[in-house]
Structure formats: C-alpha cells, structure tokens
Amino acid sequence: MSRIGKKPISIPQGVEVKIEGRKVITKGPKGELSFDLPSGIQFEIKDSNPPATLPSIGRAPAKIFLSPLEKTKKLFALWGTIRAIIAANIKGITEGYEKKLEIEGLGYRAQVEGGNLVLNVGFTHPVKIEVPERIKISVDKNIIIVSGIDKQLVSQIAAKIKKVKEPDPYKAKGIKYSGEVIKKKAGKKVVATTK
Predict the structure, then answer these.
(1) Do 101 and 168 belong to one domain?
(2) Alpha carbon of 63 to those of 5, 11, 43: distances in Å?
(3) In terms of domains, do 89 and 162 share one?
(4) Is 167 in a helix, a strand, or coil?
(5) CA pair distance 149, 141, nearest whole angstrom
(6) DSSP-derived 3-state class of residue 55
(7) Is residue 187 assigned to a domain?
(8) Structural domain contains residue 75
(9) Order of strands across the sheet that contains 31-36
(10) Which residue has the higher pLDDT, 2 or 10?
C-alpha cells in the first residue's frame, strides 16, 4: 500500500482537471499541463459535496483519487509517483515553480540575450543555453532565476545551468543553487625543506 498514492489530491478553485483517453489535462491560471497515465492506474474525480441547493461559498473542493487495478509491486511503486506528478502539475498551474542559482567568481556573469542565457564563467568563450518555451529566466546581479509551471522542466534547466561550471572545491567559484553549502577543501600546504 502506497502511503502517498492513497492520499486524495484537492482541486483548487479556478483549476480544471479532465481526462482524455489516458491523458490527464490540468488547466489553471498560469497555463496548461498534461500527463499520460500509465495503464494499471485508475483515475477518479469525486465531488466532496453531495448535490444540493447550497451556496457555492464554503463548499469543499473536488478531489482526485488514484488506485491500482492490480496488487503488484510495480503498480504500488507507480501509484505514489503518479500521484506526486499530478499534485506537482496542479501546484505548477496555480503557483508555479522557481529555482535560484548563484554565480561566484571574479568576472563571472550571466545575461539573457534573445532566447538564450549567456554565461561568462571563466572559459575562453561564452556558454549559451537555449531557454525552452515554457521556461522564464531572469538575471539579477549574480542570481539566475529559473521559473515555470513544469516542475520537472524547471529542475532540469537549473541542473543544466549548474553543470556548465560546478563550484570549485577549493575556492567555491562557479554556479551553485541558492542556499547550497559548498564544503571547501584545504589547499596544499607548502612545506619548507631544511638542509
């Protein structure tokens, strides 16, 4: 039994969730995301309120329930993962996701040119990273902000930017996540030889 999978997902106000074939489509104030539901997982939307002539104010939101069709180890593992993906999609279309990266190093800088992020991080040439359509990148001094509605894509682009120049273990120069602590190594000590 998946502890995560059995938790229902609340559908916030202003969010529309529908299923077309095996595709789960979520629409919200920030955009639209879709996810292909694997076979073996059942998807159901239940209204928390019985039909009545009650005012809409104070009504509990509808909820998504997921369940495996068979009791197999593979489906139990998928159950929690799919629940997490759908919950992340709903959060993305309502709140969005953001990752911040810091650039450390003398002369290191970043700027957005056209549809590319241009990094000058100690190489002989600037490194260009193409910004996907659903991702927004902004630069504020030495901070790169990656934002978007797709959690997976935001994390993937942030990791790609960091990989260009990972922090040096001796001087901590490079690109790191905001708040990330880099463990510095002690440099080699020069020992004077005595004759």
Answers:
(1) yes
(2) 13, 6, 11
(3) no
(4) coil
(5) 24
(6) coil
(7) no
(8) yes
(9) 16-20, 23-28, 31-36
(10) 10
